[in-house]
Structures
1.
Amino acid sequence: MNRWVLFLGVGAFICILFSALPIRAQTSGVELKKLVQEWEEELSKALEGPKKGFAREYLKEAERYCELGDFESAIGAVNKGLILSPNDSELLWVLARAYFGLGRYDTAESILEKVIRSNPKRRLPALDLLYQIHLKRGDIRGQLDTLRQLYEESHGEDKERCFSLLIDLLGERWQSWEVEDRIKESLKCQRIELLNAVAEYVKRPTNGNFHKIASKIQEIERSIQQIGYKGGYAPLDSLMSQLRRPLYFISIGYKQIGREQLKELLTQQASREE
């Protein structure tokens, strides 16, 4: 019934359009083209509501097919809906579930990423389905990453469920996981402080500023040794390794050479961060 109303409405609109053409017969080609574009825009706006309405009908149809396990028919219904309402995140959510039901995990994952970004309402269910995909593949890293997001964003029973799954996957490592994060955050700060000390020496190459760099390196090494952290933090490790050569030149009296190398090092570090 709704479709017939739509067709009648479109037909009436077209009749009005053509009935107006004789009035415009004397207009120039440019004016006529502009007039047609305006009519097309008005028609598109007029159809926007009915299109969304029909897309909702296809959504309901697709959800029913999913409940029955008829995933191929669900995909067909969703695709019809997407013609009327492209990028509809609710339709995409059902489409991802249908592809998951067919075992087409790569396609389902690609669609889920769009849903996670665009639909806050479906974000947690989509993350949960993404976890199921990683589980089916036996992808431990993927399971951990997805469960971690779910754990951080969930509440109540859902959070407890995520915690149980994380315990099963990680065992005793769970207790050290958050500690590792805090340590890495601390190492990031240490790297920034070390870079600032290097920049200060390059700006003012005094003995005092040189000793500040050396003292900062010793402080970082003591800190790492005290916490017994074996995970490492590559940007800091790389920086300390690159500092050895210019600091050696400065310590044996070749200050200008060492300073130039430090300048180059700061430029490299800045370009990486960009």
2.
Amino acid sequence: MKNIFVVYLLLSFQFVFAQTKSEDAEFLEERYINYKVSEDGIDTKGRMKSMKKAINRIALARDTSAIDVLLDIYIGYDATDNDVKELAYVTLFKFKPELMPKLAMRISQAELKYGIQRNTHLDYMDLLALKKKLEN
């Protein structure tokens, strides 16, 4: 019962603070998060260039509505493939005051989702590493 209340509280919190996504945030979500496998693959130079441009525009506009999408990119992308993950981190760092509550909520959601096995899930570990990196 306690877990249900916590999930309800987290979802309510997320609903209250939800923002309308910008065009760049929607572009990134469509191109990266909701990407469907096709012949050209996700890592083409053109696709990566488009993602970088969108992240740069988000940073310049201080578009905090894109924080969730940037978190998804940071967590889900391997930095050895290209520098999109690092660019997402630099942009997230600029949004640190707005990011920290959302990051805490993501960590709480991951703890509820994965339970005692959370330390074996890379996305949870990436969230903790990001939090530690931001706190230093």
3.
Amino acid sequence: MKKLLFLSGLAMLLAMSSCAKKDAEAPKTDDAAAAQEAEKADAPKDLTPQQMADSVEFTVDGLKTLFKNNPLTADEYEAYMLSYAKCEFKENNGFYNYKDCPAKQLALSNGVPGIAPKEMFSVLSRLIKHENAIVRDRAYDELYFGEDTIATIMAALKEEKDPKVELTFFVRLCSSSLLTNPEVAPYIKSRLKGDDANFRMQFFYNAMPKNVKDDPEYVTIISDMCQNDPDEEVKGKACERLPQFQAQE
């Protein structure tokens, strides 16, 4: 009899243990699922590059917190570039000068991680049309000027109204190997014949004679500038550089 009672009690304990296990493994109730969905709804949404730029302190250390990946994602790089809109600037010889800006200081200290070239160009080709002049100026300064990108860049230039931004573009273009490109050459020559002496002088500071050797019209224009340029400094620089360009013919 005692053995029978013992077996009966043991069966009851096993049954209770099984129920408890089933309760532990039971699916979440509707209330629990609803609470989980509410947590997801309250979680922070992905920020846009502009929101990212606005969310950090505008200091070198603050801007570094934008960089979560190396190489950078397109959004991280764009957020950093958009931060240039906060820069204070001065004018210096026809250029924007913002070298003391935290964003530029970070770049000068090599503190900006790299980014894949295609993603970089995708970002910058949009930012050269940005409403803020400093963002556009910096974007032109960062752009890759190549045969495969120049059509996009020249198209954006047609909309540029700020001569200081255009001067940055002009310097980058003169420094490139594209001076005989059919889209580039007419623009450069028009600036060499134009009224702004700063553009004409920057050509001589930045253009390499080997990059115009296939277009003899450049030598003709420079020769004329050596004789007739209305600005004495430009005229003197044209005469100084003329033999170098002639040597490439």
4.
Amino acid sequence: MKKFIKILLVGAIFFMFTTTAAFAKINPKIYNKCKIYKKLRKTKTYNRCVKHYTKVYKKRKNRKKVYKRTKKKVLTSPKKYGFYAGGNFAIVKQGDLTREDEINEHEPLPFKIYAGISALGGYKFNNNRVELEYFTHKNKADIDNSGTLYFDSLLVSFYHRANKSKLSPILGLGVGGSRVKNGFSDYSTTAYHISAGIDGQIDPKLSWNAMVRVMKYNDFDVNDDNTVDVTWSFDPTIAVVAGVKYFF
């Protein structure tokens, strides 16, 4: 008899231990919803209740995860279509200037590194955009008595974004008209550029870009003293460009 009582006690302790361990794994919200069945000693009903609400809360948790991922994607996804405006800041290394007339050819004239800025606007469609940009910068020659040149360019460019992700490579080509001023006169010429870099999306209405731009100005004739025409020829200009765009 004593042996039988011991077996019952051990079984009761084991049952209480396993039951307590099972309760510890149950979500408190689920337990609160189903505890009434436990108090009424309806074990099967209690187990079905726990199983049901476990599935319910699991689905809710999964939906929240999906919602957070979707919300994050929506908040950073770029707009597919629309107008935009923005600006760029640039560090410009103007290409060397070669001056050539009918008599002789002067030594190339190197320039210092200067800053430039631009204002721009355009229209985006899918991963492409067409852009109108006013780009201005000045450069002073390394030789002190050669003065400063001012460059103003109005460029029409086409850019292509490689993909729709938050961060993407970008490539652009452009052409436009430029005006070069030396303090006394100004001269018109044509400019071309190719740009490549990274385009990043902050949110659907705001993005940033960082690019390297190679720009080439066509040769043009200069005649300040009305005597001999001098042809000015510039080597390619290299600029590091960074800026932001706002989409309407």
